[in-house]
Structures are given as C-alpha cells and as structure tokens.
Amino acid sequence: MAEIHSQTGFLEAQGAPLYYEIAGQGDPLLLIHAGIADSRMWDEQFPAFARHYRTIRYDVRGYGQSPFPTGSFANHEDPVALLTSLGIEKAHVVGISLGGKIALDFALAHPEMVTSLVLVATSVSGAQSSELVRQFFAEEEAALERGDVEGATELSLRMWVDGPRRTSAQVNPLVRKLVHDMLSPVIAVSLPESADEIALQPSALTRLDEIHVPTLLMVGDHDLPDKLTLTRQLADQIIGAQQVIIPGVAHMVNMEQPEEFTRIVLRFLSEL
C-alpha cells in the first residue's frame, strides 16, 4: 500500500497560530479532536482516511501546538479560517466530544461549508452537565489548585478513558498512555485573562432541527450515561440522523476501536 505523505503548517487565525496537518486527495474531510487530547488522537485514522479523502486535522485552541489567542475568539470559527486558507469551500466534518461540539456549532454557524457530520460521544453547546460531571470537574480543579497535575490527569483518564463501568486494568494501556501524554502538558493551562471565548448564540441544543446534512452519531456503551442520553436526544432531533453504539468502549471510541471506527465512518461517507 502506498505511503501517505502529509504536510504540516501553521495558520494565523483569530490572532494566534493554529497548527494543522493535511494529506490525501479527494473530497475534504476535517477531523476535530476531543478535549482530553490533541490532533495526535487521530494517528490511526489519519492515513486511512487520507487514502480516500483530502484529510485535515488540527490542534484546537489551548491544545498541542495551538496557543490561545489573547483577544476574542470562537472555536467554531477556526474551521472556517482553516478550510478557507486551504481553498476548501465545503467538507465532511468528524468531531469527538469537545470536537463534536465545535463541529456542531460550526455546522450551525456556517451550514454552507459542511457536507456531512460525524459526531462521536459529542458535547453540545447549551447542554447542562450532570452531577457526576460537575463533581469530576470540582475534583479536577481541586487537584490543580494543589499543584497535583498528575493527579488531575489521572482523574481525567478514569472519567473519560476508563469510563464509569471499567477499571484502568480493563483498558488498553497504550491508549491510556497516549491520552496521558497529550493531556498532561495542557491540563493546567487556563484561558488567559486577556482572552475571551465567544460561545455560539443561540446554543446548538436549541437549534438541532436546523441541521440538514447527513449526520452519523456514535457513542461507546461504556461511556458516561450523559453521553448516551445526549446521543439519543440528537438522534431524535436531527432529521435523518443515524446512530451507532459501539460495544465495549467508553469515550475515546476511535482510539479503543480504531479499525471498527474507521470502517463505520468510511461506510457512512461512501453511502452519501
């Protein structure tokens, strides 16, 4: 099989550099990572997708090699700047967790630029967190205030990688290590006081009926109950949305089941 050659670069957008990588030919496909990772979480999918699509991945603000801007910015506007800079008018968009939230907001703010959506274990702007999630964030913040970055990282791994129904021993240690290595350098990095993150208004939760592109929803059956409930809600409210539940995995679906994830996404895209 031919080797896939990629190109990396930085785009100046919203007042700060945005790191990205692009490879392949064909219809554009944009990958947006989760909030406990960076664009390296797509390492298994990136070359596989690039054999069929012009595939782009990037580091969201505050992750990997993309610093926060010092002024106002909106996460859902970075895909606009990135695609436009590459001469791309429209793309398939795949997002996981925070990346799903950004993808959904992007699709609502710029529907003319989205061909289809794949939302995995997605967050949704405007949705309220459960007591379990609020307790997790409180414990994580307490650990960071004590200067215990490793402890805060481990809390995130237990919550989002292991999930509430498994122990760490039941999870692939290589997946845990990669997420640890992506998360630990940025978990203590907070939004600068000079920066102002702009949310989508009105929020996506109140506008799901405005999504009119083919949409695939995916979630692991070992994920948080919140994510399973939210995925069902999206399946009910996004017209024509397909839903797939992946057995035996929690939040990081594409990392725990890379071949199955890639197969499902490629099949969905090929049937459009």
From TrEMBL:
Q: Which UniProt keywords apply?
A: Hydrolase
Q: Which residues form the AB hydrolase-1 domain?
A: 28-258
Locate the transmembrane regions by residue number: none
User: What's a Gene Ontology MF term here?
Assistant: hydrolase activity
Top-rank taxon, per record: Bacteria
UniProt-recorded name of the protein = Hydrolase
Q: What is the native source organism of this protein?
A: Ktedonobacter robiniae
